[in-house]
Amino acid sequence: LLLEGRLRRAIDEGHLVLHYQPQFDLGSRRLVGFEALLRWQPPGEPMISPADFIPLAEDSGLIVPIGEWVLRTACAQNLAWQRQGFSPVRMAVNISPRQFRQSSFIETVDQVLRQSGLDSGWLELEITESCAMENVEATIESLAHLKKRGIHLAIDDFGTGFSSLNYLKRFPISKLKIDRSFVRDINHDPNDAAIAASVIALGRSMNLEVVAEGVETEDQVAFLCSEGCRLGQGFLMGRPLPVDQAEKYLQAAS
Ligand code: G
Ligand code: G
Ligand code: MN
Ligand code: NA
C-alpha cells in the first residue's frame, strides 16, 4: 500500500518514463519499429522495473490511467519523430489485461489517436496470449474494432498461454511475438528449438509476422533466419533506450 501511494504520486509528478526498444528485420538489420517499455524513475533513486510495479498497478486499477499515459506518450513520440523527418516506423505499446477489458478501452484509443494526430497504421498494440485467451469472444470483438481502425495487433509472450489454434485463427491479428524463454536456449535445447520452429511455421502459414524476443546472440539470429523468422528484438541489436538514444537508431535508418 505504501508502494501504491508512491506509484499514484509518480504518475502525477511525472516520474514515469518510456524507453524504446528497437525491432529489426533480421535479414537486412533494417529498423522496423520500437516497443515502448515503461520505467519508473523516482528522483535520486534507482529505476524501478515494470515487472515490480505493473502487477500492483493491475491489482489497484492504477494500470488504467498509467496505460492511457503510456499510449498517449508513445503515440506523441512517434508523431514527433515523423515530424522531425525520420522515416516512419511502427510503435508497439503493451496493453495489460485490465486495461484491455475496460469497456472504455476502444474509446480511449480513438481519443488518443485523434488528439495525437498519429496515423493508426503506425500504432501496434500488444496483448499477451493469456490475456487474449481469458474471454475469447470478447477478445475477438475488441480486436476486430481495433483492426477496423487500421491498428496493428500482436500477441505477446506467444507460446506461454496454451492458445487453442482454433481460436488463434479467429483473432484478427497481424503478428506473433515468440516469448524470450524459448529463444534463450534455442541453439542448445532441442525442445526450445522445436517450439520456436513450430511457432515460426505456424505464423508463416497464417500469414502473420513473427518476431523473436530476447535475441542476444548471432547464433540465435542464424537459427531464426534459417527457420524463416523475419523479425527480432533483443539486447544483441538494441536495448530499451531513452528517447535521445533511440533517435540514433532512427538517424541511422533514415
Ligand atoms: O521492460 P521490461 O522487460 O523490464 O518489462 C517487464 C514486463 O513489463 C514485460 O512483461 C513488459 O511487457 C511489461 N511492460 C513494460 N512496459 C509496459 C507497459 O507500458 N504496459 C504494460 N501493461 N506492461 C508493460
Ligand atoms: O513481455 P514483453 O515482451 O513486453 O517484455 C519486454 C521485456 O523484455 C522488456 O522489459 C525488456 O527489457 C526485456 N528484454 C528485451 N530484450 C531482451 C533481451 O535480449 N534479453 C533479456 N533477458 N530481456 C530482454
Ligand atoms: Mn511486449
Ligand atoms: Na513478451
From TrEMBL:
The chain holds residues 490 to 743 of 746 of the full protein. Residues 1-254 form the EAL domain. This is Diguanylate cyclase/phosphodiesterase with GAF sensor. It comes from Desulfuromonas versatilis.
